[in-house]
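Checked the freezer inventory, then went back to the computational side. Two predictions to log before the end of the day. The first one is the construct we discussed on Monday; recording sequence and tokens without edits.
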Amino acid sequence: MSRIFIAEDDSAILAGLTDLLSGAGYETAVLNGFENAPAQILAARPDLVLMDITLPVMNGEMILREIRKSSDVPVIMVTSRSSETDEVLSLSYGADDYVSKPYDPTILLLRISAVLKRYSRVEEKSTYRGLNLNTARGSLSDGSTELVLTKNEMLIFRVLLDKQGQIVTRDELMTALWDNEEYINDNALTVNISRLRQKLDGFGCKGAIETRKKQGYILL
């Protein structure tokens, strides 16, 4: 059963969404107050988040930006706002879909199902040095402790793992990160690789990433 986290401050809408999702076979979780909303959402480990933009303390777009620093959990923005600016901002911050209120319950359920199916197809679980890799959740685990990677760190690690033992060029990594050469930033790649290397070193995978000057990187 998929767990859906609802971040909504209108009690009537919240009750309606909870009933709708429960009736469709989903488990639901909600915010317990609006302080530390990103931490509450991540702690619940949902399979998908439904989030309003207009929320107390932190708006939905701010919460989304915080979540995306450490998690790739799918997020659908459900909001009464309908401007193109809000939709563009939400998608640029990492939202997977955007639904305007008032919404058609059937359409909303179809959107949820489509996003969950898309993520289930790309949720690849494999291993590295005895650690379990969960691409969709962006984590490595030894069974008791979890190392959470950012979205970019996981993309880099996934590319290196797919070609483990082979040299992966910086161009290949930057293409995977931004999927558009126009937005390549060499310094950002260096920072992400450095952080990934430090995290792996601290999680018992010392020397995991080897740099080959003028060639690229190898995951050992």
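The second is the one RB wanted added to the comparison set:
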Amino acid sequence: MKILIRSLLVVGAISMASCLVPKKKFDQVVKERDSLQTSLDISVLRADSLDKLVQLQKDTIATLRGNVAGLNEKLANLTTQYNNLSDNYGQLRANSSGEIKKLLKDLESAQANLAARESRLQEVEEAMRKRDEGINALRDKLAKALLGFNKSGLTVTIRDGKVYVSLTDKLLFDTGSIEIDEKGKEALQELAKVLKTQADINVMVEGHTDNMKVANLGQIKDNWDLSVMRATAVVRFLTDAQKLDPLRVTASGRGEYLPVEKLNTSEARSKNRRIEIILTPKLDELYQMLNDNANSNPANK
């Protein structure tokens, strides 16, 4: 709903602007607006997809653990029954051979099923462990490469299986500007060097602002515009100047609506004005393993 309202406001603003600016410039603004809207829609879809994938991982692991526990209990019960029958085997041999054979078959099937489930669970856990190791290694590599920019407001952290490189606006931009300054370019160059060695990492560039209203910034109408344009400026630098593959990179703007500090102080607002570069491993292989586990679960058949 917010995106629809914002789109209507932008259309209205552009319609009014069309009376004041040449058609060529108006068409250019409309084209840029459409491009930014498309990028935002793609970013939202990718974020939703990744959130669902992480939840699927958690749900599948929980299901596998539950299945293993159930099979262990079943195996223990079958083993007890088998032992009881074995104790009385001599007495019951004449009329119980068929039942014993069935019980032995059930026991063997349960053991084989349990072994297969445990093996598959270990494969999934190993894949997730390697993913986490890769994320930690990437975080350490970036932290080392960008160490010289820490005092300028740069941080590297891990959240929800992703690496977040957060750069305050004072490191990248002058107040109200969408032009990256030289210090910011140096930081992005070091970042790009690392990303070029990590072809299996997707890059999301998110722009964030504080809650102060934008004023006297020409083509920049509000905080949404400012956050998107700054994110786009970073993406263009990474892809055009640093030759990062554009297929790996997405630009989006969150405006003032995802603050890290909710206090209305100058210090809090400074922290909220930032660019976050979110690095996510490609999870196609792990996603396929989780789907295979879900499809092989007898409870789903």
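For RB: The helical segments are 2-17, 23-87, 89-145, 169-172, 182-195, 223-241, 266-272, 284-296. The beta strands are 154-159, 162-168, 201-208, 249-253, 274-281. Let me know if you want it refolded.
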